[in-house]
């Protein structure tokens, strides 16, 4: 399996979010070539700030491996992590993060700041950005365009 394959799985999760009116962001966590957690944004439905795809997937993966440490995992996410999610990734000790679309407004894996590779922290992650970037960006642009059009009408 490769990064493109797993990002396609994350995109499937993002589409599930879009179907229920959530921002179409999906996440997949892989441990030793096995998908151990999948999730999508659920913030609007739950009205809970931390209901981002990454946060939900990390919690599921913690339960699956029986530890708060996800040291042998890769997180695939369709949008560059925000500050909250980047902090949780660092705390979970995830060694590798692969994301699709860059987020110039809130991205903390290189766009605004790179919290995942701060040498001052006791953990840093390898970061790979731009995997299926166009597909990941297109689903977000389409979703927010639809919201703007509904607001106009």
Q: Number of domains in the coordinates?
A: 1
The strand line-up of the biggest sheet is 2-1-3-4-5
Structural class: alpha/beta
Helix content: 40-55%
What features would you describe in this structure?
The protein is of the alpha/beta class. The chain has one domain (3-152): 3-Layer(aba) Sandwich (Cytidine Deaminase, domain 2). Helices cover 42% and strands 19% of the residues. The chain has helices spanning 3-19, 43-46, 53-65, 83-92, 133-152, and strands at 26-31, 34-40, 73-79, 96-101, 126-128. Strands 2-1-3-4-5 form a 5-stranded mixed beta sheet.
Topology (elements, then pairings):
Layout: H1 3-19, E1 26-31, E2 34-40, H2 43-46, H3 53-65, E3 73-79, H4 83-92, E4 96-101, E5 126-128, H5 133-152
Parallel strand pairs: 3-4, 4-5
Antiparallel strand pairs: 1-2, 1-3
Helix pairs in contact: 1-5
Question: What key attributes describe this structure?
Answer:
153 residues; alpha/beta; Cytidine Deaminase, domain 2; 42% helix; tRNA processing; zinc ion binding; tRNA-specific adenosine-34 deaminase activity; metal-binding
